[in-house]
Amino acid sequence: MVIIEISINLELIISFYLLFILGANNVANAIGTAYASRATTYRNLLILFSISVIIGSLFAKNVGNTVNSLSSDALTALTISALVMTLSTYKKVPISLHTVIICSLIGLNFSSSNLTVFAEILLSWILSPIIAVIIAYILYLAYEKVEIPILKKITMIKYLLLISAGVVAFNLGSNDLPTVLGTFTTSQIIYIIGAIFLCLGAYLYGNRVSETLSMITNLSVSSAFIAQLSGGLAVTIFTALGMPVSTTQAIVGGILGVGLTKGIKTVRWNILKNIIFWWIIAPIIALIIGFVIG
């Protein structure tokens, strides 16, 4: 019989809790647009999400090793991030774990931080969703001019939308998960347990944030795919420039872009204003808490 010993400590408890909240909040990144377009049932989307996350966790070792070699004591930053992510999830607003962690680290090490680089990162957080809006607007108008029988076009796009949802969920397991756990461990079994906590958060509370995304504008299967693709392209552009931007913000930008192709009145601006408000206030809270503690 194989016996696996796991030492329960404060870092592990906080990290598993943060992954639980990350699942509840960022599940919308993967399946939010598919859910909004009613590409399939929410239950089927959660099954796709869970399988993809757990498979992704099996490939998390490399990122975990990198994070583990860089971090010294990230417990405080993880604790601040867990608090802020909990607050935003309670408010049903999708936010980025990376923006919260970066701002908490800047706050904790304010006197020694490179504020010029931080200002560049802030600029990229503003520009990335705007770029996604532009890409989505152009792509969707071009897509509508493609002459393919409508049923064939919808079926093809539906499968592409589900594949892209699986890829985003895989990245959550292979990249975001070891970003949290890699701060103190590179254990594969811990990564798999962490993936289960991430999926549990998605199952129990993920619909709250996914519903918010579905309320920004009415999405068809086609427009949902274009929104998700545009968000991914915007992130790819900024990744090539070496800037850490948010997939969450880029996908919301993509949703806004396809919504604008149908007219400005098709966008529910009150929902969008609330999301943007939390995008601003959540990192500021993380920065202030980090600054006070640091």
Write out key terms for the chains shown.
11 helices, mainly alpha, about 290 residues
Question: What can you tell me about this protein's structure?
Answer:
The protein is 78% helix and 0% strand. It contains eleven helices and no strands. It has helices at 10-37, 42-57, 61-70, 75-90, 97-108, 115-144, 150-181, 188-214, 221-240, 247-260, 269-293. It is globular and about 55 Å long. The protein starts with 9 loop residues before the first helix and ends with a helix.
Unreliable segments of 5+ consecutive residues: none
Share in helix: over 70%
Percent of residues in β-strands: under 5%
For the CA atoms, what is the radius of gyration? 19 Å
Order of helices and strands: HHHHHHHHHHH
Number of strands: 0
Principal-axis shape equals: globular
Give me the secondary-structure category. Answer: mainly alpha
**Largest sheet geometry:** none
Alpha-carbon distance between the two ends: 47 Å
The number of helical elements comes to: 11
Average pLDDT metric: 87
SSE blueprint:
Layout: H1 10-37, H2 42-57, H3 61-70, H4 75-90, H5 97-108, H6 115-144, H7 150-181, H8 188-214, H9 221-240, H10 247-260, H11 269-293
Summarize it.
By secondary structure, this protein is an all-alpha fold.
